[in-house]
Amino acid sequence: MTTPTFRALAASLLCLAFASASATIAQGPRAELTPDQRKALIAKRESIESELESIAIIDRKVMVPMRDGKRMAADIYRPKDTSKKYPIIFSRTPYNFNFWDIRLGTYRDMSTELDAVKRGYVLVEMNERGHFFSEGNYDILGAPLSDAQDQFNWMAAQPWSAGKIGLIGCSSTAEWQMAAASLGNKALTTIIPESFGAGVGKVGPYNEQGNWYRGGAVQMLFIDWLNGEQNQVRPQFPANTSQADLIAASRLFDLAPQMPPIDWAKAFEHLPEKDLISAAGGPRGIFADKMPNTTGGAMIERTPNDPAWRKGGIWQSDTMPINVPGLWVMTWYDVSIGPNLAAYNFVREHAKGEAANQQYAIIAPTLHCGYKRATEKTVVGERDMGDARLDYDDITYAWFDKFLKGESDTRIEKMPKVQYYTMGLNKWQHSDTWPPEGAKPVTLTLSSSGHANTLHGDGQLVLPAASPLLPFASSTASSKEDQPDTFTYDPMHPTPSYGGNVCCAANSIPGNGGALDQRKMEERDDILVYTTEPLAADAELSGPITVTLYVSSDVKDTDVTAKLIDVQPDGTAYNLDETIQRLRYRDGDNKQVWLEKGKVYKVTLTPMNTSNLFAAGHKIRLEVAGSNFPRFDRNLNTGGNNYDETTSVIAHTQIHHSPQYPSTITLTVVPKHE
Predict the structure, then answer these.
(1) Which among 78, 98, 136, 340 could disulfide-bond with 330, CB atoms 3.0 to 4.6 Å apart, if both were Cys?
(2) Contact 363, 611 (CB under 8 A)
(3) Architecture field, domain 4-431
(4) Three-class secondary structure of residue 259 per DSSP
């Protein structure tokens, strides 16, 4: 999130996800305005602020004390009618919410604050520890976790508080919510986490540790984000600075850093990996340094099972029960859609009492936090997804009205537990469960005569027995003998990322993520391509996709990647989801086991997830390779630490497929509705 263009976009979308699309939360580059445009924008903002002042008590730069003496900065907006107490909508964020647009010289768009007060809520916006006007040192997700407890208790004790708090926000404004909800604070009544993957540690088959890993490989997109967030060399005001002086200062200094521009596509190539940020001129911080008052050593040095991950604010499903109602908002092209869905299902299954029946999910077809950018013609990458709009503001306030005010609201009472957008069908659908009711697994086997390399190879996905769920126009026999496919993976020339599920360093990925035609990638000899025959009728895939490969290689450690593709009749090949497995962790994240040269190992990759209609005439495709860089970091194949190495070994990896080595892909197929 440090490249200027993406930081400006992220600031608008991530801080207060229930804000209007035009809200400008942080300073950043903007298009030049004509004098008339500037005048009109200033007038509009001043009008909103004037209306807000007429109905609200505005209390800015309130320094809320934590138990260790540090103070967190908050702006508070509440109705002027002091005869009542009000429920609280709380948004805690590492991003900038300063009320004054320094560059424009006027208020920022205060529509969100105005709307909340009009609807009878107190809105509290607060910066995480170590950001902007908040004191202390930053650690991932604003540790210590006790900050959340202190903040809830402080708000609940205020004379204007009804003692009920609801959380909302997207990305880092959401990710702290789950661990905080597990504290069981009596004032916390409900949560609305949106695109919340980096708040998830271990859940189901995933051990992400805050979006840091997938299958034991580092998700590099998070490194770009850390470059902008970990900096602790920042201006801070003396502890005795008055509130009035802080408000005055915030009209002059919003404390938003202007990070030096970095070409991340180039920066990600630097070795050793641990020096990546410093080599790009970025600040010291928790990525590669042991920082004071933080929860553990450098993040890049941690293994997936390092105890340090459990000392911060990341939610761990096995030790942190969540027993409050939750509205979980996700997107198909987010960096962590799989863990997000697993978290939703886990909480729904394990929550106690009424909370178990008060978990709802919305899954949009967009990129990370992009659901409110859907239009009548929603395009994600290159693919037209149709009209993917949904009235999120209406749903949000209906939710808060029910769980914070106790109002009966048929919109929520009648709302399906899961609303999901099916791509290809381009339609919102609903279900009481995820995957949808009636969905069934269907397994295809990989087959070839040993030449599955490239789009022009002979790799096939074969349905061993006829199935009405996947009616292919013709059938193909699977391999009777093991004729393994071989690809060469050179870490100095890795298979590049192309589109896909991204969040932070989108500018380092061609097309900035999403669905892109993969055919030009499939010309590469280091990609194995397995494709079905055309479907004779429509087939909806909604749910997890699990790939199991039988793998051998000539190195101590290497990676295998997988990508699910929808191939249209004209050959266009749109990517749906992707995954990876670092083979040293093939037997679990708690141990590293090296490969023996030539030995065949069964490897099950962490599941992919989607909802996509493969229309009649379309084909289902699986890509297999040795890297997806810089979406995931390169395995240097040596068996060393990887993060502190500069030399690599070329891997020659084989994918085996035969009755003895049945490499497969298992799809979740929803029966056709009659």
Answers:
(1) 340
(2) yes
(3) 3-Layer(aba) Sandwich (3.40)
(4) coil
